[in-house]
Target: Gluconate kinase
Amino acid sequence: MSEFFMGVDIGTTSTKAVLFDESGSQITRYAVHYELLTDVLGKAEQNPDEIFQAVKKAIWMVMKASQIDQTDLAAISFSAAMHSLILTDKNGEPLTKSITWADSRSSEALEKAKRDFYLEGIYEKTGTPIHPMSPFAKLLWLKDAAPEKYATMHMASGIKSYVLYKMFGTWLIDAALASASGLYNTEEGCYEKSALEMVGLSQDKLPTVVSEMHQLSGLSTELAAEMGIAKETIFVVGASDGALANLGLQATAPNDVTVTVGTSGAVRKTTNHFQTDGRSRTFCYRLTDGLYVQGGAVNNGGKAIEWAMEQFAPLDVRENRDYDKLMQNASEIPLGSNGLIFLPYLLGERAPYWTSDIKAAFLGLTISHTPPEFIRASIEGVALNLASVYTAIGEKGDVVYVSGGIAAHPFWCSLLADILNREVRVTHTIEGSSLGAALLAMKSLGKRADFTLPGKSDIKAIYKPNPSRVKAYAELHKIFELASIQLTGINKQLTNWQKNVRK
Model:
């Protein structure tokens, strides 16, 4: 009798439930979308109860569509976006929304802490860059910005911990997500005392850290019915979305690099040791026992390309959200967009600059530039920024695996090969995080000895760098990086001016 495993990926704009068989083949999937609540002051929040409802609905819809017997579902495992924070009271009710990685309101509090403390020591111990995205920074901010809530909170958790609490009544966090909090000493495997002292928080107000393969069971009859599963269904806690993407894509060899572009983007390399960067350009997070991921996440991935489409694409492309045509039109524009460079920092930036002061800009603009050139420049800008992250971890002999919806576009894959000067491979699935979660469940239940999927190393397409284009992009990338660095000071002045005008 076949057994099935479900990976549930709790993301920034949607929750996806994906059902796999024992071989890792996808059976069916369902996504529930929700809103990211933002404003001009840097807010980027979600309703945690809306996400809990999305998790239940996604699971129910997959069970309904697959029509498998409840007893054939061996386990459900979770992937989740990193860096979320929710304060809850003693009854588990939210005192705040779920504050996401994209929220930048902690910027000023973090800058003050940089003046008062040696925060690089926190980075060196936790592997989490010093940036407003981290729960560490958010807690620094909330301590002063919302003292009443801070004083009365019972628990400070992330969105996955909240979902698990709603299901099982216990506060837990996997070590992978804990390692991305800025509060957890990844090498020693415990909460970092110096970080807790800075945010004024005791360890009993944080979820208990467990293994990524920790199992839970014993749903209420009501909850099981809402999800269309058996009460006895095993839930595996799982890990973070970025780390699990590497696992699901089977990119775990020393020279395997993944480039994922969804709403945001990331460059990651799997390693067997914890290692931070001397220049603080990259993160190092835990995946599971003996495995870590090193690299950098960017705020401006698919969202920047979507923005360019809305601003510059023809009406039919915008109305139909026709990314195939968007990419085709961009491919017809000469390399370098006729001297137009786009710095894609519409949402501030994480790697490699780790600052919310950086801003987007078009450089080299002349009266002769046309909308298609703006679009190509925007796509090139996203790729050039990813190349800046890759520079911090890249080695000769690396092979790049691409994932995310954008991996379906040959123009993007070819562009990335040229800009990174590496062979680019398109893998068998774009659901890397969900499959990675399912693999954790398989290993947790003893269904496989390791995370290898025999027969699942199939590559859909391979793109090799073109020497002449590589040379041209290498020169353009130098200009891109110089502009990004030199304009940061000006952008900081502009940010301060904006704040003063609003007062």
